[in-house]
Amino acid sequence: MTAEAGLDQGRSAFHEHRWTEAFESFRDADQRGGLPAADLERLATAEILTGNASSGLESLTRAHEEYLVIGDIPAAARCAAWMAMHLTHLGEGARAGGWLARGQRLVNELAEPDPVQGFLLIPECLGKLYGGDPQGALRLFSQAADIGQRFQDRDLSALALLGTGQATLELGRAEEGLRIFDEVMVAVTAGELSAVPSGIVYCAVIGNCHVAFDLERALQWTAALDRWCRDRPDMVPFSGQCQAHRAELFRLHGAWAEALEAAAVAQERSGRGDPQALYGGHYQQGEVQRLMGKLDLAEASFLQAARSGYEPQPGLALVSLARGDPKQAQTMIRRAAGLADTATRRHLLPALVDIELAVPDLPAARQGAEELARFARQCPMPMVRAVANQANGAVRLAEGDPGDAAQALRQAWHLWLGLGVPYEAARCRVLIGRACRDLGDQTSARMEFEAAHAEFLELGAAPAAAWAASLMRNDDAGAPGPLTAREAEVLKLVASGQGNRAIAATLFLSEKTVARHISNIFLKLGLSSRAAATRYAFEHGLTG
Q1: Is the predicted pLDDT of residue 507 greater than 90, yes or no?
Q2: DSSP state, 34?
Q3: Which of 3, 45, 241, 541 has a C-alpha 20 to 30 A away from that of 349?
Q4: Could you count the other beta carbons within 10 Å of the beta carbon of residue 21?
Q5: pTM, rounded to two decimals
Q6: Is 399 buried (19+), middle (13-18) or exposed (0-12) by CB count in 10 A?
């Protein structure tokens, strides 16, 4: 194939989003005789999108230099702006700053206004946004949006509108920010933007929907991102972030095996060219492990997530709580919440309330619940109302007000059911059961505990199942709560020191059946060893 034919093939593949073919064709043409500046820029994009970030940045540098040689200053400045944004994405702030300064110097040489001036504002905008100055970021994003509109540059307009939504959300105006995200997503889903801005918008919008507790929007846009990524199977950037978002949705909806699979893919993609997936891939894995009671694995996952530079909270604090150290959990969550921006703090508040109740520090728990209630009044979306009602109910229960607690918790339960979030719905039922018991209604209390216990078992949430089991009351003397009569017999023999073979002989069962019974006992009671099972049996009078 001639170099010219390779160029034509590369351009065709690029415009049809066949990134690997575009990369290979441009690379071959480059080796045969070099590439024009515009094709070097296309090669750089194809390399970055296939996970070859290092060579992509080299090609983008060459494109920048070639544009300078031919005197195309706006194009050279545009390459500098994208270098700054890519390097910021990779966490290389110093190099990004250097390229931004070079781009701004080139723009100062222009005799006429150009849309590249708006692109060069974007990294500066992001610096203000992530540096704790959302109001300053909003002003700069507005300037970039004006430039994009003046020159009808759709990529610039979309990025500026995205940033406007993010800054608005940071300023506490959640509904307004989410409406802006919907507007920018119209351009993305209509195919009006190029690949890199499309991916940036998709992932940023979905992440911010989760921060704003808008589960329905997150679900819709994650499904759209998943379709977009499937249409580009050789694309690495953004695909890992898509898997991390999928993992979070799977976790919330109780599909924990699928959540772990998606998290593993996100981790793999984070090492191949999508570094922004590092946090989500490991954090979501850690959350599933924590809920399953695998605390050591969860802690390891959260520490891996911390390598991204983002703090793995509230997960790490909740691990300390699960290990029986509420004071350490309180120290961690208070510090994290105290330093967080408004949107992130709201994300931490449900865990903060749980931890303050465990300490217990009822005034601090009440303060957190009231903060969530104010947020729910400002932004009455279902998930916000669910977490606010659940927090309010839990605090009222601890304050000795079971009647009002049950009402708030019942509202939260209905909302969680509507959202399809089974774990939180089951937690509400346990708290409703406690309220019923405090009101003297033992029958209703047991019904709630049993329903929650069954849901926790189905999810594989061993610690929560043990919590529900500990609250269950059985009228039969000596009955071990959630265990069947046969499982109670097996537990008694385990406590006597017998092995599986001896238990099988005593009960005329196969060893395989005995092993299955023991596995069920461990899961139902939240235990992990025969020693723990023996201790449980003695503590609950099941050895006589």
Answers
A1: no
A2: -
A3: 241
A4: 18
A5: 0.83
A6: middle
Q: What is the DSSP letter of 148?
A: H
Is the pLDDT at 361 greater than 90? The verdict is yes
Compute the distance between CA of residue 361 and CA of residue 130 in angstroms, rounded to an integer. 32
Among residues 223, 176, 163, 228, the alpha carbon closest in space to that of 198 is found at 228
Supply 371's token pair: 């903060």
CB 473, CB 447: distance < 8 Å:
no
Q: 59, 34, 36, 33: which is closest to 46 by C-alpha?
A: 59
The pLDDT score that the predictor gives to residue 331 is 98
Give the per-residue pLDDT at 478.
45
Length of the chain counted residue by residue = 544
Residue 401 backbone phi and psi in degrees, to 5 = -120, 70
Residue owning tokens 């000795």: 400
Number of H helices, E strands in the chain: 29, 0
What structural domains and CATH numbers belong to the chain?
236-312 (1.25.40), 361-473 (1.25.40.10), 479-544 (1.10.10.10)
State which amino acid sits at residue 353: V
Q: Please state, as a whole number, how many other Cβ atoms lie within 10 Å of the Cβ of residue 47.
A: 24
Q: Are 225 and 219 in contact (CB under 8 A)?
A: no
Q: Say what the pLDDT of residue 475 is.
A: 36
Eight-state DSSP code of residue 193: S
pLDDT of 520 strictly over 90: no
Q: How far apart, in whole angstroms, are the C-alpha atoms of residue 60 and residue 454? A: 57
Q: Which of 216-230, 450-464, 508-522 has the lowest mean pLDDT?
A: 508-522
The one-letter code for the residue type at 181 is F
Q: Tokens for 509?
A: 């069962």
Distance CA 459, CA 438 (A): 28
C-alpha distances out from residue 325 to 30, 305, 364, 501, Å: 61, 22, 17, 38
Return all residues near 444 (Cβ < 8 A) that are at least 6 apart. 433, 436
pLDDT band for position 378 (cuts 50, 70, 90): confident
Per DSSP, the three-state class of 337 is helix
3-class SS letters over 188-255: HHCCCCCHHHHHHHHHHHHHHHHHCCCHHHHHHHHHHHHHHHHCCCCCCCCHHHHHHHHHHHHHHCCC
Amino acid at 270: S
